[in-house]
Design a protein that fits this description.
The complex is a heterodimer of chains A (140) and B (93).
Chain A: H1 14-23, E1 34-39, E2 44-52, E3 58-69, E4 72-83, E5 88-94, E6 106-107, H2 110-133
Parallel strand pairs in A: 4-6
Antiparallel strand pairs in A: 1-2, 1-5, 2-3, 3-4
Chain B: H1 2-9, E1 14-19, E2 24-32, E3 38-45, E4 57-62, E5 67-71, H2 79-91
Antiparallel strand pairs in B: 1-2, 1-5, 2-3, 3-4
The chains are: A alpha+beta (140), B alpha+beta (93).
GO cellular component, one term (chain B): Lsm1-7-Pat1 complex
Protein name (chain B): Sm-like protein LSM2
Organism (chain B): Handroanthus impetiginosus
Chain lengths: 140, 93
């Protein structure tokens, strides 16, 4: 099975027909639209789709990861990404006319979002250890 | 193939797809394939505040392997028909 190119848009998968709808059957693959790919580990990748196959393996061009922590968000540029299909949860078409994010969210720098991520992780770790210590109380 | 044909009959109806990561998406069923991959149109996420990144997604493709439940319209299930089809399948015909 070769990679899907402009000539074999008609694969039997619904991903293929989905892409037909996004681009129309005869338009070039590379006049692509921006997509959001949700991964199994919760990561959110955005980029333009170059290619895909029947397993939902996909190649994203000028991909970026959108990190959201509370009301803060940041787009971290990643470049060209090849995603293995089993890790894909959902592929969504981004409607550029709609608001991308709720207005109360603010964009911050990479360093700042990493800091926020770390703080969130530490908070949840702490919650975990506290819970573990209190286990003898038979909560729930 | 029973549920594949079953879902094909539901095309055009409004369903809620609940994923294994607890994300629940409501939308019009556009199509379904042999892996029970699902395509939804006019989607909205049930818990919008928890998933702000899904705000601008209007159509989406969901990989069949990550689906936990599909919530159907109440009149979308013909129990008698499904019983018959299931029995036929069990008999191997």
């Amino acid at each position: 099975m070769s990679w899907a190119g402009p000539d074999d848009v008609y694969l039997s998968t619904s991903l293929a027909s989905y892409l037909d709808i996004v681009w129309g059957p005869y338009t070039s693959f590379y006049a692509a639209e921006k997509l959001l790919v949700l991964l199994r580990d919760g990561r959110k990748l955005m980029g333009t789709l170059c290619s895909f196959d029947q397993f939902a393996n996909a190649v994203l061009e000028s991909a970026c990861e959108r990190v959201i922590v509370g009301d803060l968000y940041c787009d971290i540029p990643l470049g060209l990404y090849v995603i293995r299909g089993e890790n894909v949860v959902l592929i969504g078409e981004l409607d550029l006319e709609r608001e991308e994010l709720p207005p109360h969210m603010t964009r911050v720098s990479v360093a700042e979002i990493r800091r926020a991520q770390k703080a969130e992780r530490e908070a949840s770790d702490l919650k975990g250890t506290m819970r573990k210590r209190m286990e003898f109380l038979d909560l729930d | 193939m029973l549920f594949f044909s079953y879902f094909k009959d539901l095309v055009g109806r409004e369903v809620t797809v609940e994923l294994k990561n607890d994300l629940a998406i409501r939308g019009t069923l556009h199509s379904v394939d042999q892996y029970l991959n699902i395509k939804l149109e006019n989607t909205r996420v049930v818990d919008q505040d928890k998933y702000p990144h899904m705000l601008s997604v209007r159509n989406c493709f969901i990989r069949g392997s990550v689906v936990r439940y599909v919530q159907l319209p109440p009149d979308g299930v013909d129990v008698e028909l499904l019983h018959d089809a299931t029995r036929r399948e069990a008999r191997g015909g």
